[in-house]
Structures are given as C-alpha cells and as structure tokens.
C-alpha cells in the first residue's frame, strides 16, 4: 500500500536464520565507526571497538539491532544497510558457480519465501556477475518525530517513479 506497487515475492529471515547465514560464510567484515557498548542492568552485554572487525552470527545480530539512546532509527538503518551490502559481498565471494546450488539450498532452509527456487538461483547468478555494492539500496523518505519516523508520501511516490516507472524501460525507450 505504502509504495502503491504490487509485491509479488517476499523473503523472510528470522534471527536464528540470520545468525546461521552469517556464521556459514565465516562472518562479515564491518568498519565500526565508533565504540559500541550496550549495558543491561549496569553490566556490559555487548561491546565492539572502533575499526575493521569480522562479526560472527550472534555478534552481527546485536550490531545490526543496536541503537544508542540518542541515535536515530535512520543511523541504525544506515548501519543495517552497510552490513547487508557486506553480507552480500561475502555471499558472492563464497558462491562460485559450482557451489551456488548447494549454497542456495542451504539458504532456502534458513528463510521463508514464495520466490521459486529456480528464479532465486537465476537472480543469484546475475548478481555473481556484478558486485554486490552495485545493488541499489534506497531509504524511503521519512519525517523524524519524537516517537519515531513517519513516511513522507510525496517523496516515496517520487522514488517509486524513479525505480519502477523508468520511461527508458518502455518498448520505445532507449
């Protein structure tokens, strides 16, 4: 409804599937831009120092879910997008043409989707010929409020038009 376009396929990954996926590729390299410390009842529960680090499953999940008390949801979203791009890079490195079917079947066990297996495999093959960083990751425009973020419908319509209604895709376009 929000995007005013049909969503034909979905992929859901729960926390357990996320941690298993990250562990299956030996973790994901992340540039920690500043020290992160999460406390619960005065005890440090989670801590990362600044710099390049390889995060394994449970630590990676804490990292993408972490939000400092004063940090906006948008900063956490940016960190999540950076992590997903790094995860995609790692997956593409692990996925050689000969290993792709086995990796795809393993991933199928970790997620719920209505995307046909053959289509997912075809998409993965196309991605292997591109770098994961070439993927378009778009954040929909929002207005920040005291209680969170609210969508900005006009800005969202503009982005949807740019992404999904490109005139160059029509039969007469170049």
Give a description of the structure.
The structure is a single chain. Helices cover 44% and strands 20% of the residues. The protein has six helices and eight strands. A hairpin with a 2-residue loop joins strand 3 and strand 4 (43-48). Helix 1 packs across helix 2 (57-65). The chain starts with 10 loop residues before the first strand and ends in a 10-residue tail after the last helix. The model has no long low-confidence stretch (mean pLDDT 81).
Question: Can you describe this structure in just a few lines?
Answer:
This protein is an alpha+beta fold and 174 residues long.
Task: For the structure shown, list the relevant keywords.
single chain, 174 residues, alpha+beta, two-stranded antiparallel sheet, two-stranded antiparallel ribbon, 8 strands
